[in-house]
Amino acid sequence: MNNRNFRLFRHSTHTHTPPPHTDTMTCPKSELEADKHALVVSEFIPNRLYFVTFRNKTHRNTTDFHYFTTDDELVYNNYYADFGPLNLAAVAKYINKMNFKLKSPSLASKVIVHFTSSNEKKRVNAAFLIAVYAIVNLKMTPNEAFNRLCSLKYPYVSFQDASMGESQFKVRLIDCLNAVRKAVFFGIVNFDDFNIDEYEKMDNIKHGDVSWIVPQKFLAFSGPVDSPGEECYHAPEYYLNYFRENKVNTVIRLNVKMYNSKSFSNAGVAHYELYFVDGSVPSHDIVTRFFDITENASGAVAVHCKAGLGRTGCLIGAYLIKHYRMTALEAIAWMRICRPGCVIGYQQTWLEEMEPALWNMGDSYRLRYHGSVDHIRNHKYGIYSFRNKEPNQMQSVEGLSCDCRDMQQGSIPTLYPHTSLHTSPTATSSKTETQGDKLNAVKRWRDMQQTVKSFKKVLKKTH
């Protein structure tokens, strides 16, 4: 990706040579559209790959068509009323599945149909999967993939945040696709070099609830505690080996003190306090200090609040907007794909209103340190990389040209009344549940249910 122009990349097209079309079969798209249960038919590879929304109908394979669905296989684990987008592991599994089907000799002469139901939540997640595949493997732009899916009669619902009940804070399907496109382009993720097992293990609350957002730069995790007591919490020492293996040398705490920071600092991990109230947004001083710490850190930075979702997402999201010129909605979408539940409530509004100022700051930063506003980081290895495991293997950083608009330099505006920058208060014995407590409780219950399901599967196989 050296020195490629992002403007040209945005508008690139891809042609895919379809397999020979047999005379014994009518046009696949016409045949699919003729099905009375078909609501929308989208063609991704002519005569070869289609995405179809059926009216609650199960399809069996035929001589000419191979049907499959992911609706009950790749499922989103919600907190409350949130229902997507599906996480990185689901995306990686889907890409592997689709590649297998397209390369399988037994399916070489068949039309492959990924179908979904009219359930609007399952449908938009299924559409997200095949559109990401089209972007990553068929080299379509997000708009090209999205336009193939579009239907005026059956539009796609937007994803909402992890709030209880209906929420006004939405992220659209196209925002998710744009986020993945930028993440792939800048090397933040490489699905040809992605360790699904590591992602799923570290995502589990029993194994630390750790999520990489930017390779060798940012990971988000649940706040440690000195005396865990429950499986959803871990002592600081639990994380040290993983941090050493992944060159994490800085921890930033955003919540009240629940562990002694010396547990990290005595192990050679720098520790910083940037406390602000659970569920709120950071002050000007906190954002400035966060950038100062993270832009000067020599290794990766681990950021946590109580659940590692809301406050953590605010600050990492601000970094993504500033340094990768993502929109606020793209940054939120990317974080939720990496770590479902990130950014809750009006934290989204804060990021959206901060977007212009953060873009200006990013332009100023790149111009000052790299001589060009278009110099955007390109990662040699993506998050959860297999290849980036050799000792002392450092990723390269190369200049890329990004589609950046000329904007006047500006500072961060103060948009809300905030708590001032100060040391984290110590947790008290108060029984008041915070937003982070509730989210962690959901994580614990969810993982327990998953354990029960896995146990039942084992029992079923043994009988």
TrEMBL record:
Residues 420-433 have a biased composition (Polar residues). Residues 1-23, 415-435 are annotated as: Disordered. Signal peptide: none annotated. It is an enzyme of class 3 (hydrolase). Residues 288-350 form the Tyrosine specific protein phosphatases domain. Keywords: Hydrolase, Protein phosphatase. Residues 209-364 form the Tyrosine-protein phosphatase domain. CDD domains: CDC14_C, CDC14_N. One of its GO terms (molecular function) is protein tyrosine phosphatase activity. Its EC number is 3.1.3.48. Pfam families: DSPn, Tc-R-P. It comes from the Eukaryota. Belongs to the protein-tyrosine phosphatase family. Non-receptor class CDC14 subfamily. This is protein-tyrosine-phosphatase.
